[in-house]
Amino acid sequence: MDSNDGGKTPTVESEILNNEKLQIRLKGCEHNLVLLQIEQNAIWKLLSESYAFLNANCDHEWSRENQLYSPLQCSKCGVKK
Ligand SMILES: [Zn+2]
């Protein structure tokens, strides 16, 4: 391929632009990851509170799966102990 292949062969100038675009995309990804981590932490906190409520208020029916060392689990609410 030579340089007349429809612009697919990069030049230093085009690669600098491509590099800058990739860095902007990466920053966008990293920003979204931070937002997702914040949302994940908030959901974990809500789930923890939900399990605490269920643990305290459910009329549990404990059962154990047929695996060695598997924890007791309430068949109604899913809380384990
Ligand atoms: Zn329960």
Summarize the structure.
By secondary structure, the chain is mainly α. It has 1 helix and 2 strands.
What does it look like?
- It is built from 1 helix and 2 strands; from the N terminus they run H-E-E.
- The protein has one helix at residues 12-57; strands spanning 62-64, 72-74.
- Helix content is 57%, strand content 7%.
- The protein has one domain (12-74).
- The protein is elongated.
- The longest helix is centred in the middle third of the chain and has 46 residues, at 12-57.
- The protein has a two-stranded antiparallel sheet.
- A hairpin with a 7-residue loop joins strand 1 (62-64) and strand 2 (72-74).
- The mean pLDDT is 92.
- The protein is mainly α.
- The chain starts with 11 loop residues before the first helix and ends in a 7-residue tail after the last strand.
- It binds zinc ion.
Which of globular, elongated, flat, extended, rod-shaped describes the shape?
elongated
Domains, number? 1
**Radius of gyration, CA atoms, in whole angstroms:** 26 Å
Termini separation (Å)? 66 Å
SSE ordering: HEE
Give a list of the ligands: zinc ion
Beta fraction of the residues? 5-15%
**Major sheet description:** 2 strands, antiparallel
Strands ordered across the widest β-sheet:
1-2
Structural category is mainly alpha
Stretches where pLDDT is under 50 for at least 5 consecutive residues are: none
Mean model confidence by pLDDT: 92
Number of strands: 2
Q: Could you estimate the helical fraction of the residues in percent?
A: 55-70%
Tally of separate helices: 1
